[in-house]
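writing this on my phone so excuse typos. first protein, seq and then structure
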Amino acid sequence: MRYKLYPWLLLAALVVALLLTGFDAPAALDAPLLLVPQRNLITADTTPTFQWQPVTGATKYTFEIKDRYTNAVIVKNTYSAAARCNAVECTIPSPVTLSHDDYKWHVLSRTDSEKGAWSVWWNLTIGTVSLQTPSLQSPGANAAVFQSTPILQWSPVDYAIEYRVRVKDALGILLVDELLPCAVCKTPGGLCEFPLPFDLGTDYGLYSWQVQAKNGGFYSTWTTWRNFIYTRIAAVLQNTPANGQGGLFTDRPMFGWSVVDGAEEYQLQIRNTSGTVVIEEVVSAAAACTSLTCETQTTEALPDTGTYSWHVRGKNGRNFGYWSAWWSFTTDK
């Protein structure tokens, strides 16, 4: 009688045979143990020497330095263990001259055919922390911001000649990383100012920012990240003309509505019964509003007597608020 040997039986038989013969799987390469520069070291040396303990079986090492905040790769090279290591340590001089900044570095053990494990990251700061940390002023912590190009403000620091500003979104994506001259601090109020260099538009949500003072190789610690919330402007409450109001004996009616937070201007639209917008005007909140209400008369006359409808919304740059409802009114001769 013939027996059919299924593939899974063959695999099981092979495993049993390997176990019986004392087969050992090749051991994975360990992660290197970093030695110097010491973890979290602050040094003025722009070309420090890097060392780590050799890993048994490793014939190569990949060395990498990144910017600690942007995560940008500064250098990433692979070195022969035979050229860089002895029985105690592996050594390389810094492959590049590092500018005054905050970095992190790690090392990967490997062979020609196998990657081992990365070491842990170690932080490294090039420079001297001697300047006072800036004091963030505006926007306040978790403040609602309505301006589509927010202006960041902080107090100037003695002896600082430039400032580094970073802004990130709610996902942690770095949107701004700029080095600014001290001239940004020569404002009438004595604060340093940095308008966001792009328009947030409709990208409402949480943002964070921080600042560092610098003077060549001397600088401050970073401020802690401060959040602000870019918020859409709320809908206004209309007052006059009331919805359905008739008997307006004018071709330039007066319109009134409530003030809403964050609006520096208001956009007014009037349409006819066919839905065509016949008048559209933008008025300044400073010119048309008190602390509670806004009132404006259109500069353009309505084309004819009859029934129209109107609505209005606040705006601040490219931050357009919610429209109010359409309210109708009728003009008579």
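second protein below, same order as before
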Amino acid sequence: MKRGLFILLTFLLICTTSAARRRDCNVPRFTYGAEWSYSAAFYKGYHFYFIAPEGYRVDDRQNKASYCSNGEAYLHAGYNIDGYWNLSIYAGYTGIGDYHAGIPVSLRATRYFGDLMADRWFVYTDLGSGISIKSRPQELLSARVGTGYRLSMSRYTKLDFIAAIRFMYTHPDIDYYGEFIDADSVSSNSGYIVSASLGIGITF
């Protein structure tokens, strides 16, 4: 019984090691690269609760369609689990509608379809946080789902064309009739932006 179990475990270990070696021969384990996108914000909302300069309280809520163009750029580093799944950390700079800019950091999971050495489609999702760039830096949250097409330039070099929908939650500065409200007078300054983006990326 023990001998049979030992033989089975040895066989499984050999098979796993062999598969890992074949994978390593075909798929680079670690990846890195850059990504650039044009982002068009098309919907926004906010909730501001603060004390106006005149001394009274203001509770302002709004959700509306709104267009604003932004650019975004990211660097990324990741790990190929196999020929079809990749996990990567993305960090960069982006505009967040007409609120302010930010430095988001997120974890992205990507699923590829088809032969790993051929051109192929993929889908991805990411989730993360970051810091807003404004008079009083605060945290932000980001989420994204997207798809794209990968051109295989070589075993190590890939060119990606991507499209995505992005949601970002942040804390905008409050501009009240042309006057910015001091942070000490603000109880709530939450806001969100929904955007569509098109971009290009390169991965090594």
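Residues 104 and 130 are 4 Å apart (CA to CA). thats all i got for now
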